[in-house]
Design goal:
eight-stranded parallel barrel, 8 strands, single chain, TIM Barrel, alpha/beta, binds 1,3-dihydroxyacetonephosphate
Length: about 250
C-alpha cells in the first residue's frame, strides 16, 4: 500500500512561520509521489495561508470539523468550509480532543460520515491510555473504539477513511511505541476492520513520538502504512527525513 505521512501542527506557528515551514519543506523535496502521500494539518487560521502558497505535492488537512453542514454552532467550523479553503483531509477524534472537548466515538463517527460526504477524507484517531495498556486492555479498547465509530459512521464510510493508531502514552512524551508494539496493534486493527466488513485497504498510520530516528523501523512493519507526526512535523529536517523513510519502504 502507498505510504502516508501526515504532519499535525496542533496549536502551533503563526502566519510567517507557517509560510516559512511549508516553503522550506518544498525546497527540501518533501512532496507526494508514487510512493508516499504528504499532508500537513495546520490550525484553522493558517489553512488559507498554506493553501494560498499552492505548494504542489503537499496536501492540506484540518485538525477537526463539526458534524453539521451549517447552523447555530458558535465557534465551530464545518467540513464544507474546510473544502472551500482547500482542505482535502481532516483529523478526527484526536486524543487531545477526546480529553479536552470530551469527544466520544459516536460523535467522531458522525463527524467522519459528514466529512466524507462533504469531500474530505477523515483521518480517525484511536488509542489506549497507559493504564489501559498496563491492565492488558489495549486490544479490547481499540476494538471498542472502532466498533462504536463504525456504528455511527457505517462500515462503508470507514472503508474510505485513514485510521491512525496513537497510543496516548506515546504522544508528546518522546516514548514512541516500539515497532513490535505498534505492529501488533495494527494487526489487531486490520483484522478487526476486516471482521466488520471494512475493506482491508484502509491505510493504518502510527502516531506518537515519531522522529527521524525511529521512522524507518516503524515503517518496516508490514501493517504500518505511514505516520501521524506531531512535534517532528514542525522541524524541516525531521519531517523531510520521515517522508524520505516512508519513500524507501517496500511492503
Ligand atoms: P507527537 O509526535 O508530538 O508525539 O504527537 C503525535 C500526535 O499527537 C500526532 O497527532
Amino acid at each position: 500500500m502507498k505510504m502516508t505521512v501526515v504532519g499535525n501542527w496542533k496549536m502551533n506557528l503563526a502566519q510567517n512561520s507557517a509560510r516559512e515551514l511549508v516553503r522550506s519543506l518544498a525546497q527540501a523535496g518533501v512532496k507526494s509521489d508514487n510512493a508516499v502521500d504528504v499532508i500537513v494539518c495546520p490550525p484553522y487560521t493558517l489553512l488559507g495561508t498554506v493553501a494560498d502558497l499552492q505548494i504542489e505535492g503537499i496536501a492540506i488537512g484540518a485538525q477537526n470539523c463539526h458534524h453539521a453542514a451549517k447552523g447555530a454552532f458558535t465557534g465551530e467550523i464545518s467540513a464544507e468550509m474546510l473544502v472551500e479553503i482547500g482542505c482535502r483531509y481532516v483529523i478526527l477524534g484526536h486524543s487531545e480532543r477526546r480529553r479536552d472537548q470530551h469527544e466520544d466515538n459516536e460523535l467522531i463517527g458522525r463527524k467522519a460520515h459528514h466529512a466524507l460526504q462533504s469531500g474530505l477524507r477523515p483521518i480517525i484517531c484511536i488509542g489506549e491510555t497507559l493504564e489501559q495498556r498496563k491492565n492488558g486492555e489495549t486490544f479490547s479498547v481499540i476494538k471498542d473504539q472502532l466498533d462504536k465509530i463504525i456504528t455511527s459512521a457505517t462500515a462503508e464510510c470507514v472503508s474510505s477513511c485513514i485510521v491512525a493508531y496513537e497510543p496516548i502514552w506515546a504522544i508528546g512524551t518522546g516514548l514512541a511505541a516500539s515497532a513490535e508494539q505498534a505492529e501488533e496493534v495494527h494487526v489487531c486493527i486490520r483484522e478487526h476492520l476486516k471482521a466488520c466488513a471494512v475493506a482491508d485497504l484502509v491505510p493504518l498510520l502510527y502516531g506518537g513520538s515519531v522522529t527521524a530516528d525511529n521512522a524507518a523501523a516503524l515503517f518496516a512493519c508490514r501493517n504500518i502504512d505511514g505516520a501521524l507526526v506531531g512535534g517532528a512535523s514542525l522541524k524541516v529536517d525531521e519531517f523531510s527525513s520521515i517522508v524520505q523513510a516512508a519513500r524507501e519502504v517496500v511492503h
